[in-house]
Amino acid sequence: xxRKLAAGVAKRTQKTHISSTRAxxxxxxxxxxxxxxxxxxxxxxxxxVNWSLCEDGVVPVGKAYRNARPSLxxxxxxxxxxxxxxxxxxxxxxxxxxxxxxxxxxxxxxxxLFESQKELLSSGxxxxxxxxxxxxxxxxxIGVRVVxxxxxxxxxxxxxxxxTPPRKCDHRARFDGWNFDPRWQETKVEWTGExxxxxxxxxxxxxxxxxxxxxxxxxxGGDVSVQFVENxxxxxxxxxxxxxxxxxxxxxxxxISHASNVVINEKYLDALAVPSLSFTGKKGASIVVINATDAxxxxxxxxxxxxxxxxxxxxxxAYGVSANWNGxxxxxxxxxxxxxxxxxxxxxxNVKDKAALPVSPDNVIAPATHIVFFxxxxxxxKLTTEExxxxxxxxxxxxxxxxxxxxxxxxxxxxxxxxxxxxxxxV
Length: 427
Fold this sequence. Notes:
The protein is an alpha/beta fold. The chain has one domain (about 35-180, about 205-420): Phosphoenolpyruvate Carboxykinase, domain 1. It is built from 8 helices and 23 strands. The protein has helices spanning about 45-55, 70-75, 105-120, 150-160, 250-265, 295-300, 385-395, 400-410, and strands spanning about 20-25, 30-35, 65, 85, 100, 125-135, 140-150, 190, 195-200, 215, 225-230, 235-245, 270-280, 285-290, 305-310, 315, 320-325, 325-330, 350, 355-360, 370-375, 380-385, 415-420. Helix 2 packs antiparallel against helix 4 (about 150-160) and helix 7 (about 385-395) packs across helix 8 (about 400-410). The chain is globular and about 80 Å long.
């Protein structure tokens, strides 16, 4: 299982600023003087964004658009404005390999890949930077940054990731989380001893960093590699991901899911992030399928007997199950996405009847009542609570304290295992 720890080092460089020319006139003659205009910010050249990319090790020689306007990205693609775009790439599914520094490849091998990727992204082409998050429940949300030269991939990432309110880019703080969203603030109700006192929602606490997970997309091939980053206390605080240009979208999703699950499990003792599909089944059952296949995810978005909540990865808490992803990859002709005012602001990119579609899940659904482990070839059977907890502990490589917390989170849950990737026997 991929999981080894690693330390990452970002290259810090400064973007140079552009000189402008201004003419002066006199009775004798006209002279021209060169001088520097500062600040000289404009769309695609925002200093805070440039500095944050330098902190990530990428020097934005060209323009760098952070969460760019959809019309700007469609213009970059050469597509017409609209709710959807038909394209030849990126492919959503396909073969790829996922490696991890310190486990399946060495730290030196990852460093070579990482340096090559940063050089490519610093070569002068315009960059599209998507700053968003994973986690519908803000208490356990973490930030994700995707850096690419491909505006189409940026559009896809925007739909799949969890949107968050606009926030100024802070290059000085990394790997600390991103945990602010007024959508899920709750009115406080306090008992004074005589009556209930209701107050307006207070702002949730804002953590210092922005992007524990950073994915750098580009370069040859379709391989994906992850490197975890530790702090001085040898605690995982983030991850760098290198993604080849030919990698399918599902490779980006799965690598970010893997990295974020590890970071969430390290950061929050009272939460368990797992690779999974979550949905509400018959009689309000809250079901989580660990290691669900793409076929299961596809079935969940089209099966009228279930209400899908989160594809690819979810976080279990005492408050309920929260979806880590805002979107799902499915057929736009078979699945009509539920788009709320907080849904994707980007047009749908349709490639061979597959697209990233917004789900806009609730912040949480009810705490899990059923947890199903999918294992190819396994016979369907029930598991004891002890067996189920043991599998979750092994999956997350939990510490003793974390294992105790996991047991508390899943108290009363029904566990089972299946090798059938249909949903009819689960719901």
